[in-house]
Amino acid sequence: MAKKTAKTNAARILDREKIDYEPLQYSTDDGKIDGVSVAAKIGAPVETVYKTLVAAGSSKNHYVFLVPVAEELDLKLAAKACGEKKIEMVPVKEILPLTGYVRGGCSPFGMKKPFRTFVAEQASQLNEIIVSAGKVGAQLKLAPEDLLKATQGEFAELTAKP
Predict the structure, then answer these.
(1) What are the pLDDT digits (tens) for 32-71?
(2) Where does residue 51 rank: exposed (0-12), middle (13-18), buried (19+ CB within 10 A)?
(3) In whole numbers, what is the pLDDT of the chain averaged over residues?
(4) Cα gap 91→48, rounded to integer Å
(5) CB 144 within 8 A of CB 124
(6) 103 vs 97, which has greater pLDDT?
(7) Residues paired with residue 25 on neighbouring β-strands, in sequence order
(8) I need a surface site. Which of 6, 12, 15, 109 has the fewest CB within 10 A?
């Protein structure tokens, strides 16, 4: 009999919002929890797997950015998207106290408090997007529009064009 996995807060929030999603699990035994490795482990195209990044603006406001795991957040574009002069990534040691999540398991849903959320515009071309379920080893697959609905997010240009 398959082991039933415990629901994360992120999944409970989607249930409450009546948003369809598919929970995905992966093994962390090898220690590889970077996004590209996670995409391979769950058998998903790398361009559909998004990482959740937390940054602070010069105004001291915090923001959440979701970008494809194989790409980098362009800080200038991120600052422009949220109307800040400058954006800096939040240091890893501040992620847990700020969001309630650990690095590698930071979900865009269910942070300690809601932050303005921006999703890389290329997600608007996808049928499904995969994001962290709020713990290392768990992901959630859902429609990009549902991600925006659940986070009150918006699409923005966040990655530099190659």
Answers:
(1) 999 999 999 999 999 999 999 999 999 999 999 999 999 9
(2) buried
(3) 93
(4) 26
(5) yes
(6) 97
(7) 138
(8) 6
